[in-house]
């Protein structure tokens, strides 16, 4: 089946024409800022000249590693104009993944920001920092022209590969023209349209979201990742746009929120989904929520420039099948058998595409290119591996896959690549990965591992495996659940019997017996919800949503359900950080319900008691069998408190389980504690430490207290002069003045990174206060901070260093500490570019616990 069309003008030149015709029209919006076509054209011309001066030319790869903002548009258009190849890299990818892509592409240049270049260690290749605004401004901003053949490579997008390494899909300028032009023609996209960029820039569908509105003369809205995953902000954005495309996994969690709240979505004229099999009921819901919009399914993949088929969802009939429609103009689609011969209508076969969208192949993978791109009847075709069938009316129905590839959250994953890394995880002798259906119908991955028989602590080993996988693979490729098996099941041919792999959650309930059960109405609500979401038989009060296998989209589902059922708006950070018990306590507090009394009962290990004391929000981890020893944790302040929260919570649970009750608290004006942050001072926070210590003793009757301080919390603690048995410090701030200078420098760099090519307004100086990395401090507090020093008291001082080892060793010796523990993990406290980056434990909690518990 085939249809016809497209234009031949290079797309970056079409965008440049809008800068001449409508220079003041808005090309892009990001947060509260706008970018006109004139500005976009000027900066992309300057970018093209900067790239050519640094060696950009035909087939030269230019990697782009930037966060959401105007940077992506300027880099993309500048690269296309220079004739080089656009290679997007997600800065949230693990370092190992980024390194694999860079090693494969060997880029001529990497475009990024200074803080990302430093954080991701990109300096092994030449870099162009977008922070160097003066150098870019000095370049000619008039139209840049270079001869470009449409057959030249325009971009490379990396997808999951079977060999354990990602594979790059190469597309030409001709492919790109076909990609965007067929979309504009089919969906009538024009200069009136406002389209949000929802997909990650590292996925090829992002090209549709970025370029379609610009080529049409419309407006693209750039969204932060946390914006996309926040149903409240997404609802507001969708009320402002005319056209959007979103994956079914996102829609499945977002649509219930939109349907539950009265939101005006009348401006939306087009709503489409794709990237995965789309359940008919989801399309029905999409029609109900967006009553004024045409609803479409878009089906394709990177290898055919994404635009393969499209299905107009009928409003006068109920959808009952997973149709993907008919081909776009100039695209041919066939359904073939194993011998690559057409099958009759109604018979299943492999979906094969040909046409102008079929890309050049895989970068440096000639064998795979020859396997997947084949000649049929004189046409170059791509074998998708998808299974489908034609119906009598000509509609193509998608039925699934015929290979070892799956889609999770709309993103293609080769299970072989995930297994490759899982088999190389610590302590793993053998491993397998399977796709499973979650309770809501989404695909999730489960990892099955066989450990070394001599391994002692298998629970810790599973946590280490999860951390290893997080360090190796993007978040969407990390299994949601892990199951330990004595051996992998085999069939009669002695091959892995995947059908015999047990369901995660049902496979191993060994850890349920020692968990504390829900007691209150709200706790029971959360426990039932999580058991349904994760298909497990038991959830305890100490369980954490993400440790159970949750991800960002499931967190959105949780937030939407809690909003609907309890009318409480949870924050994504609450879900990320807190245990079930604390989440329930947060909801009860916001609902005005009384806090439940702390308790320990037979068969339990610890209890958690959230409470307020003199305006301080505290969480007490009570030991079931107290030893008379208690611990006070003085956390860092500002953004560092978010980073350390996971490790400190694990430390509290670990100590409480061993008989040491632990108190965590938020300083005045921070977190849940009362007051404004600008009112907090070092003197006040030292009083908070004294108050918290007194409350810890009163509630636990402890006869001996160890005080634990982290970063600035350690410095404040050392100056509080508490009557404690010992001080344990983790990466303490030794000189307040040096710490302030570091914070101020980081804040300046962060602001430069957020200004996105000179559009951001300079930060305004607050009267009597200063903002540093999202926290506002009074001038009085900063004067106290600059005078603050870590001091040595008469009590024993134990020190854990996980950052800047040489300097900490010198400080430890100068202060005459009693014991120094060096842990070979770099916490990189200066890496403050993403507030959601919680520190991984990596043995930190156990090392701190050892310093707390060991006798002198």
Task: Give a verbal description of the structure.
By secondary structure, the protein is an alpha/beta fold. It contains 26 helices and 36 strands. The strands form 8 sheets. Strands 11, 12, 13, 14, 15, 16, 17, 19, 20 and 21 form a 10-stranded mixed β-sheet that branches. The longest helix has 20 residues, at 736-755. 50% of the residues are buried.
SS content category: alpha/beta
Estimated share of beta-strand residues: 15-25%
N- to C-terminal distance: 80 Å
Number of H/I helices: 26
> What is the radius of gyration computed over CA atoms, rounded to a whole number of angstroms?
28 Å
Q: Characterize the largest beta sheet: strand count, sense, and whether it forms a barrel.
A: 10 strands, mixed
Task: Enumerate the spans where pLDDT stays under 50 for 5 or more consecutive residues.
Answer: 1-6, 506-513, 600-604, 755-762, 832-836
Overall geometry: globular
Task: Summarize this entry quickly.
The protein is α/β, with parallel strands linked by helices and 856 residues long. Helix content is 35%, strand content 23%.
């Amino acid at each position: 089946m085939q249809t016809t069309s497209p234009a031949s003008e290079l797309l970056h030149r079409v965008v440049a024409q809008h800068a001449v015709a409508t220079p003041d029209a808005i090309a892009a919006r990001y947060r509260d800022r706008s970018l006109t076509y004139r500005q976009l054209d000027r900066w992309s011309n300057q970018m093209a000249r900067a790239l050519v001066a640094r060696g950009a030319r035909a087939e030269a790869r230019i990697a782009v590693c930037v966060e959401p903002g105007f940077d992506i548009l300027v880099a993309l258009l500048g690269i296309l104009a220079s004739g080089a190849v656009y290679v997007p890299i997600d800065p949230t990818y693990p370092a190992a993944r980024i390194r694999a892509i860079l090693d494969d592409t060997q880029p001529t240049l990497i475009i990024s920001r200074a803080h990302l270049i430093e954080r991701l260690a990109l300096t092994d290749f030449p870099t162009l920092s977008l922070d160097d605004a003066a150098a870019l401004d000095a370049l000619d901003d008039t139209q840049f022209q270079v001869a470009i053949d449409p057959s030249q490579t325009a971009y490379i997008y990396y997808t999951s590969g079977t060999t354990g390494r990602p594979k790059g899909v190469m597309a030409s300028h001709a492919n790109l023209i076909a990609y965007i032009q067929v979309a504009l023609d089919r969906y009538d996209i024009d200069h009136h349209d406002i389209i949000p960029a929802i997909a990650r820039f590292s996925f090829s569908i992002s090209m549709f979201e970025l370029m379609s509105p610009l080529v049409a003369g419309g407006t693209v809205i750039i969204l932060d990742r946390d914006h996309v995953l926040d149903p409240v902000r997404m609802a507001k954005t969708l009320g402002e746009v005319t056209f959007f495309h979103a994956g079914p996994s996102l829609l499945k969690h977002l649509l219930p929120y939109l349907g539950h709240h009265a939101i005006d979505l009348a401006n939306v004229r087009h709503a489409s989904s794709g990237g995965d099999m789309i359940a008919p009921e989801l399309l029905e819901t999409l029609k109900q929520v967006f009553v004024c919009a045409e609803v479409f399914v878009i089906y394709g993949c990177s290898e055919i420039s994404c635009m393969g088929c499209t299905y107009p969802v009928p409003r006068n009939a109920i959808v009952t099948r997973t149709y993907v429609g008919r081909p776009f103009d100039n695209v041919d689609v066939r359904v073939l058998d194993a011998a690559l011969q057409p099958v009759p209508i109604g018979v299943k076969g492999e979906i094969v595409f040909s046409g102008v969208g079929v890309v050049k192949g895989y970068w440096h993978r000639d064998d795979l290119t020859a396997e997947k791109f084949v000649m049929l009847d004189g046409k170059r075709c791509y074998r998708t591996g998808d299974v489908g069938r034609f119906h009598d009316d000509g509609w193509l129905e998608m039925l699934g896959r015929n290979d070892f590839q799956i889609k999770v959250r709309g993103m293609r994953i080769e299970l072989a690549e995930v297994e490759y890394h899982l088999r190389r995880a610590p302590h793993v002798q053998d491993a397998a990965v399977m796709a499973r259906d979650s309770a809501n119908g989404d695909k999730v991955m489960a990892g099955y591992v066989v450990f070394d028989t001599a391994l002692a602590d298998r629970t810790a080993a599973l946590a280490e495996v999860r951390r290893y996988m997080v360090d190796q693979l993007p978040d969407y490729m990390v299994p949601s659940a892990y199951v330990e098996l004595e051996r992998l099941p085999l069939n009669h041919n002695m091959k892995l019997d995947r059908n015999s792999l047990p369901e995660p959650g049902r496979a191993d309930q060994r850890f349920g017996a020692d968990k504390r059960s829900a007691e209150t109405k709200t706790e029971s609500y959360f426990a039932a919800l999580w058991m349904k979401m994760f298909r497990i038989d038991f959830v305890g009060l100490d369980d954490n949503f993400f440790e159970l296998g949750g991800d960002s989209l499931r967190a959105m589902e949780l937030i939407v359900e809690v909003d609907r059922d309890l009318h409480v708006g949870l924050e994504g950070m609450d879900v990320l950080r807190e245990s079930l018990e604390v989440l329930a306590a947060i909801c009860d507090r916001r609902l005005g319900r009384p806090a439940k009394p702390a308790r320990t009962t037979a068969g339990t290990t610890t209890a958690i008691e959230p409470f307020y004391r003199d305006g301080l929000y505290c969480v007490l981890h009570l030991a079931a069998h107290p030893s008379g020893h208690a611990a006070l944790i003085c956390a860092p302040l500002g953004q560092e408190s978010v980073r350390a929260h996971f490790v400190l919570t694990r430390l509290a649970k670990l100590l409480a389980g061993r008989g040491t009750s632990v108190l965590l608290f938020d300083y005045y004006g921070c977190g849940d504690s009362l007051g404004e942050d600008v009112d907090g001072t070092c003197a006040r926070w030292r009083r908070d430490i004294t108050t918290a210590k007194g409350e810890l003793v009163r509630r636990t009757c402890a006869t001996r207290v160890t005080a634990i301080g982290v970063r600035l919390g350690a410095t404040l603690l050392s100056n509080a002069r508490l009557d404690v048995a010992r001080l344990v410090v983790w990466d303490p701030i030794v000189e307040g003045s040096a710490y302030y200078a570091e914070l101020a420098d980081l804040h300046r760099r962060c602001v430069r990174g957020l200004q996105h090519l000179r559009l951001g307004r300079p930060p305004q100086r607050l009267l009597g206060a200063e903002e540093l990395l999202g926290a506002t401090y009074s001038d009085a507090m900063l004067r106290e901070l600059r005078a603050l020093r870590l001091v040595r008291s008469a009590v024993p001082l134990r020190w854990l260093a996980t950052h800047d080892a040489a300097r900490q060793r010198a400080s430890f010796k100068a202060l005459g500490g009693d014991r120094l523990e060096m842990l070979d993990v770099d916490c990189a406290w200066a890496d403050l570019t993403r507030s959601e980056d919680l520190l991984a434990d990596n043995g930190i909690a156990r090392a701190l616990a050892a310093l707390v518990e060991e006798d002198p």
